[in-house]
Design a protein that fits this description.
The chain is mainly β. Helix content is 14%, strand content 52%.
Length: 143
């Protein structure tokens, strides 16, 4: 914003050079919202291990003063996650991830597709994002 006047604020809003916050939602252009979200949310356990169809817990920290609400946006081929995740402001949450196969082996990069439902890039359009983790898979023990 060039000046701190009502006209300058209006110009910045209509030119999509700002982010608005109202009723627990961030609204704006993705080029501003994505870096803001990525700076606020941190995966504290970027590498986990899963044996067989077991479960591992991701720890995700929200370093902001805004609660973020995530919804599943498709599915990973390798793991399943809860359909909805709330990241309360200033808190760390534990998110269980479960292997979809008991025969997977080795280290794999996994992208978990989510939609941030209270970060809007268009009318009723939550921002698409991916939670990236590395999973060390070990096959289930033979019976």
């Amino acid at each position: 914003m060039k000046k701190n006047t009502p006209e300058a604020v209006r110009d910045a809003l209509f030119s999509r050079r700002t982010v608005a916050y109202t009723r627990g939602m961030l609204i704006g252009d993705e080029r501003w919202l994505r870096p803001l979200f990525n700076e606020c949310v941190e995966v504290l356990t970027p590498t986990v291990s899963i044996t067989g169809k077991g479960t591992a817990n991701l720890r995700i920290r929200n370093n902001s003063d805004i609660t973020f609400v995530l919804a599943a946006n498709g599915a990973s081929d390798l793991v399943s996650v809860p359909g909805g995740i709330t990241l309360p402001a200033g808190k760390t949450v534990i998110v269980p991830i479960r292997s979809k196969s008991d025969t997977l082996a080795g280290k794999k990069r996994v992208s978990i597709p989510v939609r941030v439902t209270n970060v809007l890039t268009g009318p009723d359009q939550g921002m698409a994002e991916e939670i990236e983790v590395t999973v060390n898979f070990a096959p289930a023990a033979a019976k």
